[in-house]
UniProtKB/TrEMBL annotation:
Organism whose genome encodes this protein: Aquicella siphonis
Alphabetically ordered keywords of this record: Metal-binding, Signal, Transport
GO BP term (any one): metal ion transport
Chief place where the protein resides: other
Protein name (Swiss-Prot/TrEMBL): Putative periplasmic iron-binding protein
First and last residue of the signal peptide: 1-29
Cited Pfam families: ZnuA
GO MF, one annotated term: metal ion binding
GO cellular component: cell envelope
Localization (cell): Cell envelope
């Protein structure tokens, strides 16, 4: 290479270095890939991660039953590139085990909500309705995002504070309901909302019937009789049902509750797509509050 060519090459290299230095502030890292089994977890991750995360939620439709989900190829593709995988656990989403065992990536971070809340298999799996679950999960998600992307750790910390400040409205509402309605007897078709009613201090009736429905087992004659008596004799002041599940037995009990003029509350198992987790929970609590106040008027 001649001296002239060496000089030209050095100038070109210098220009390249200057160009790269100029554009580097504008080049952003690829977002963290997050796969969530259910959309309520995915929505919270979006709040915490903002533009630094790309979230795929597997169960997204109110009409979808997570227990009956079958894995589609697209989900496996997303899982293969996931940096973080979040699922409920407690046998609510057992299909996630196939995803974890088939993922091509060796060591994605994995968060299981049930494990974080010390909920064992065989227990009521609807732990997102436990008031403490999301703040605990949000803290662990923030730690995971910071581990994967330390450069934006301050952003994740700010978003966690923002989430906790917003979610404080849920905790305040639960506390207010507890002060007003502690000990009030209620009944439900299945234990979907029971962690929340427990936190409020409501007295839940018909647990045997609920567990049978949750486990897809026909309720026994005695369970049906006990449930019907609680409605006919107005022992239960509010009737709570899963408005996502269509079941002849639960539809029969819903009709009986309406016939007896017992206030009813329909709770959805999967979050609608046009809201936030906090807003969704607040809406469900507002419906329960309204029904509990109706029972006082109907005394």
């Amino acid at each position: 290479m001649t001296g002239v060519n060496r000089m030209i090459a050095k100038k070109i290299l210098s220009l390249i270095i200057v160009f790269l230095a100029f554009i580097s502030p504008f080049v952003t890292a690829a977002p963290i890939q997050v796969l969530c089994a259910e959309n309520f977890y995915g929505q919270v991750v979006k709040e915490l991660g903002g533009p630094h995360v790309s979230v795929t939620s597997v169960i997204t439709h109110v009409s979808g039953d997570p227990h009956l989900f079958s894995i589609q190829p697209g989900v496996l593709i997303k899982a293969a590139s996931a940096d973080l995988i979040i699922f409920n656990g407690a046998d609510y989403d057992p299909w996630i085990k196939s995803i974890l065992s088939n993922t091509a990536r060796k060591h994605p971070l994995v968060l299981e909500a049930a494990r974080l809340m010390n909920i064992k298999n065989g227990s009521n799996p609807h732990i997102w309705f436990m008031p403490q679950t999301m703040p605990v999960l949000a803290r662990h998600v923030t730690d995971a995002l910071t581990q994967l992307d330390p450069a934006h750790g301050d952003d994740y910390a700010r978003q966690l504070k923002h989430f906790n400040d917003s979610y404080g409205a849920v905790l305040k509402k639960v506390d207010n309901l507890q002060k007003q309605f502690h000990g009030t007897p209620v009944i439900a078709t299945e234990p979907l909302f029971n962690y929340m009613t427990d936190a409020i201090g409501l007295k839940m009736l018909g647990s045997g019937f609920q567990n049978s429905i949750m486990n897809d087992i026909p309720p026994t004659v005695s369970q049906i009789r006990e449930f019907e008596n609680a409605l006919n004799e107005h022992k239960a002041k509010v009737f709570i049902y899963n408005n996502q599940v269509i079941n002849p037995m639960t539809e029969k009990m819903l009709a009986l509750a309406k016939e007896q003029h017992i206030p009813v509350v329909g709770v959805s198992e999967i979050m609608p797509s046009d809201t936030t987790f906090t807003a969704w929970i607040m809406e469900q609590l507002a419906k329960l509050d309204n029904a509990l106040n109706q029972k006082q008027e109907n005394k």
